Amino acid sequence: MQHSARFRLGWKNGLITAGILVLATALGLLFDWLDLQEVNLYALFLLGILLTAALTASRFCSAVSALAGILLFELLRAQPRFSLAFLRTLHPMDFLIPLGVALLMGSIAHNSRRLTDRTRLLLRADQLFLKANGREEILSITAQQLEQLLNRPVALYVANGTELGPVRRFGAYVEGTALDQIAAQWTFRNGENSGARTARFARADFLYICIRTEAHVWGVLGIFAGERPLTALEDQLMQSVLSECTLALERGFYNQKRQEAALQIRNEKLRADLLRSISHDLRTPLTSISGSAGLLADQGDSLSPEQRHKLYADIHSDSLWLLSTVENLLSVTRMEEGRMALHLKPELLSEVVGGAMQRLEKYGSTHHLRVEQEDDLLMARIDARLILQVLTNLIDNAVKYTPPGSEIAVRTLRRDGMVVVEVADTGPGIPDADKEKVFEMFYTSAGSDARRGMGLGLALCKSIVNAHGGTISVSDNVPHGAVFSFTLQEERIDLPS
Questions:
Q1: I need a labelling partner for 441 at 20 to 30 A (CA). Which of 220, 240, 287, 338 fits?
Q2: Could you tell me if residue 495 is inside a domain?
Q3: Helices 349-359 and 384-400 sit at what angle, rounded to 10 degrees?
Q4: Shortest CA distance to 89 belongs to which of 101, 107, 77?
C-alpha cells in the first residue's frame, strides 16, 4: 500500500515538474516575442524552479527543474535559437547557483510538508483516542499512528493478564532476530525499554517500549530501529503519541471503575429496595392467607357456606397476587442484571393479545374488556412470552385503578413502520406530575391499594419493551382515563401473489 502511494505521488510530482517547465518555456517564447530583457527570462525560469520545489516538496524534482530550467533558458537565448552554441561559453556556476537554490528550497518544502503531515497525524491520533473504545483499540491506534508518523514497521504485543498475547505487525513485515521475542518479554516483565540501540539486547531489530500506567502494564510496543536509530524528532513524536496513549488508557480504566462502582451502588440500592418492599408488601397478604387458613382450620365447621366461600376467595386472590408479584420480581431482577435472554421471532399480535385476554378472563365479571385490531395479520418480531407479560401487567393495572363496570380496550395498530399496542381505560386517569414516574421501580401512586403497592409491574413493562427496541408511554384518555401505549418493530412477510 505504501509503495503504491509513493508511486502515485512520484507520477504526480513528475507531471507537476513537467507542466511547470512547459509553461515556463511557453512564457519564455512570449517574452522573447515581446522583446523583453534576458533578466526577465532568467527570473521566469527561477520562479519555475521555486514553484516546483514548493509544490512537489521533492529534492529530486527540484534538482531536475533547476537543471532543465537552465538548459531551456540557455536554449531560448542562444543564437541561433535552440542551438547548442551556448555550451562553449557556459560557466559551471550558471548551473551550480540555481541548483543550490533549488535543492535548498526543495529541502525546506520537504521538511515543511513532513512537519505538516506529522502534525495532522498527531491531531488525528488525539481524535481517535477520544473515540476509542477499550484498551485493544487504543493500543492498535497507537501502533498505527506510530507506523505512519515514523515510517517504520511497528510490532504490538497486548498484555493478557500476566502474559503477552501474540504479536501484531503494522507496516512492512519485518520478522526480527531471535532476540526480539526475548526482549519483548523482558520489557513486559521489568517495565523498562530494551532491544535495538539500548543496553539490553542491543542486537535486536526492534526497540521495545513498555506501555504502562501507574496501576497496569497494558502491552509492549516494538519500533523497528535495526537499520538506523530514531532521530531526536522521531523520539519526540513517539513520546507524544505514547503520552496520549497512556492518558487514553487511564481515562478508560477509571471510567470503567466508575461504571462498575455506579452499577454496584445501583444493585445495592435495588437489593435494599427489594428487601424493604418484600418485608412490607408481602407480609400483609401472607398474614391474610395465614389468618384465613387458620380460621378455616379452627372454625370451618361452624362457618356458613358464604363465610367459607369468602375466606376461600380471599386466599385464592391473595395467592394469585403473590404469584404474580414473585414472577414480576424475578423478571425485573433478571432484566436489570442483563440475564434475561430474548427469543425473538415473528408473532401475530392477535394471538398474543388473545392469550392475555384469556389469562385475564376472570376480570370479565367486573369490567368490560374489548379488543380492537386494525389488522388481524399484524405481526412483530418479539418474545411472545415477555410481551404477553407486558399486556397482562398493563390490563391488570387498568383493572386495579378503575372502578367495577369500567371499560378497558386493547388496541393494535400500525404507525410509521411500527406496531403500536394500546391499553385504554375509563378510570380517573393519571396526574401529569405522575406520568414520568409511573414506570419507575417501586413507585406507587397515592390512590393505589396500599396492600398491593410494590410498584414492579410497570417498571417491568418498560424494561421488556426497551429490550425489544421499543418505547412505552402513558397519556390521557378522552374524556377521562389513561392510555398506556408501547411500540414494537413491525415484521412484514410478503405473501406470494
A1: 287
A2: no
A3: 50
A4: 77
Q: How many angstroms separate the CA atoms of 57 and 127, rounded?
A: 27
Interatomic CA distance for residues 98 and 50, integer angstroms = 10
Q: Can you tell me whether residue 172 is helix, strand or coil?
A: coil
Copy the grid coordinates of residue 451: 396492600
At 399, give phi and psi (nearest 5°).
-65, -40
Q: Are 333 and 368 in contact (CB under 8 A)?
A: no
- Residues 174 and 43 placed together within one structural domain of the fold: no
Same domain, 445 and 358: yes
Distance in angstroms (rounded) separating the CA atoms of residues 100 and 96: 6
Q: Which three cell numbers stand for residue 109?
A: 518544502
Same domain, 32 and 104: yes
Q: What is the tens place of the pLDDT at every residue in 427-459?
A: 888 888 888 788 876 666 554 444 444 456 787
Cell numbers for 202, please give them. Answer: 542491543
| DSSP element (H, E) containing 413 | strand 407-415
Neighbours of 39 (CB within 10 A): 8
**Whether the Cβ atoms of residue 381 and residue 469 lie closer than 8 Å to each other:** no
What is d(CA 241, CA 248) in angstroms, rounded to the nearest whole number?
A: 11
Residue 277: other Cβ atoms inside 10 A: 19
Looking at the structure, tell me whether residues 112 and 207 fall in a common domain: no
Yes or no: say if 338 and 267 are a contact pair by the CB < 8 Å rule: no
Side-chain-side CA neighbours of 476 within 13 Å: the count stands at 7
The number of domains in the chain is 4
> Rounded CA gap, 222 and 210, in Å?
9
- Please list the residues that pair with 329 across neighbouring strands: none
Is the whole-model pTM more than 0.70?
A: no
Cβ atoms of 108 and 62 within 8 Å: the answer is no
